[in-house]
Amino acid sequence: MSFSDKQIVQILDKLKQEYPDAECALVHQNLYQLLIAVVLSAQTTDKSVNKVSGRLFDAYPDSAALAGAKQDDVIDIIKTIGMYKTKSKNIIALAGELENRFNGKVPDTYEELISLPGVGRKTANVVLSVGFGQQRIAVDTHVFRVTNRIGIVSEKDVLKTELALMEALPQDRWSEAHHSFIFHGRNCCSARNPDCESCVINDLCIECAAGQKK
After folding, report:
1. pTM for the complete prediction?
2. What does the DSSP assignment read for 64-120?
3. Is residue 73 among the annotated active site residues?
4. Catalytic: which of 14, 46, 87, 140?
5. Which one of 76, 89, 122, 214 is the catalytic residue?
6. Which SS3 state, helix, strand or coil, does residue 203 take?
7. pLDDT tens, position by position, 24-53
8. Label partner for 212 (CA 20 to 30 A): which of 5, 54, 98, 101?
9. Cβ atoms 119, 94 nearer than 8 A
10. What is the distance between the alpha carbons of residues 24 and 50, in angstroms, rounded to a whole number?
């Protein structure tokens, strides 16, 4: 089954109505904080990052401060989140790159962002979307699960899902859709027990229509 352009718009409209305040859940006050928070959020929840990021940014308010940090001191702050050893190393190195290569400023291109330690495709897309207002689709576990379950795409990996969504969704709604799918994944379309009965798009979802739950 493939959706028509009209059906795609219906899905996006319903999700936007259901989650009008869907936006980046990572607490940040500037581009530096956004970038570091997104790096820290890999394979962990935004809530867990928000619990440590305030203390981290108080201690290291800019890239110059973080670049000079000792790894053990950073670990002491972020040790409650997953992969804290690798992440502490990466964000210190990342801060150093910002200072040495970009005059302490977060770059605004995909190629420059992914050249930074700890920054992959998803992180770069989030920063470009949230921080710079570019239309981007960042595929995390929620976006991957929800869009494949609904039937908008049918892909086996994150990259193929992102590319397929770029083809399927209107470009001027990429960033909005990204946040809507995340909120829907968190609040309704969970991995183990999706609440199909309460789903605002159950009349369009191929899995709800088939009476299946994964």
Report:
1. 0.92
2. HHHHT--HHHHHHHHTTSTTHHHHHHHHHHHHHHHHHHHTT----SHHHHHTSTT--
3. no
4. 140
5. 122
6. coil
7. 999 999 999 999 999 999 989 999 999 999
8. 5
9. yes
10. 12
